[in-house]
Amino acid sequence: MPRHYQKKLGGRNYKNYNDETLESALAAIKRGMSQAEASKRWNIPDETLQNKLNGTHNKPPGHPTVFEPTEEQLLTKTLATVSDWGHSRCLTQTTVQRTRTLKCNLLPKSHFI
Questions:
Q1: How far apart are alpha carbons 5 and 2 in whole angstroms?
Q2: Is residue 62 part of a domain?
Q3: pLDDT, tens digit, for every residue of 54-68?
């Protein structure tokens, strides 16, 4: 049965604006509006606007991914091909094999001597 979490009173506010609103606020600031005015008008925290203007905290939220997007696409394609051939491999076996292959291709040969 799924859990239905209730937000705690006074809990942390998360993003209550969309990307278009953020872009509008940043454009207004660049045209001369103060950050405080933009923050109040578009209901975006001052720190968020400051970080976006300075280019800090621009990484996506969450833990870094293990694979790059191209590696993940290649892994997905490989799994689909192996499945079409009738082999049933678990994800762990395929991930370990793919990681070893990538490391062998990316690391210099002297690393393995």
A1: 10
A2: no
A3: 988 777 777 887 888
DSSP state of 60: P
Q: Check if the beta carbon of residue 38 is closer than 8 Å to that of residue 48.
A: no
Alpha-carbon span 85 to 54, nearest angstrom: 51
Q: Is the pTM of this model over 0.70?
A: no
**Structural domains of the chain, count:** 2
Helix (H, G, I), strand (E, B) or coil at 29: helix
**7 part of a folded domain:** no
Structure tokens at 57: 């905290």
User: How many whole angstroms separate alpha carbon 107 and alpha carbon 86?
Assistant: 32
- Residue 10 CB-half CA count within 13 A: 0
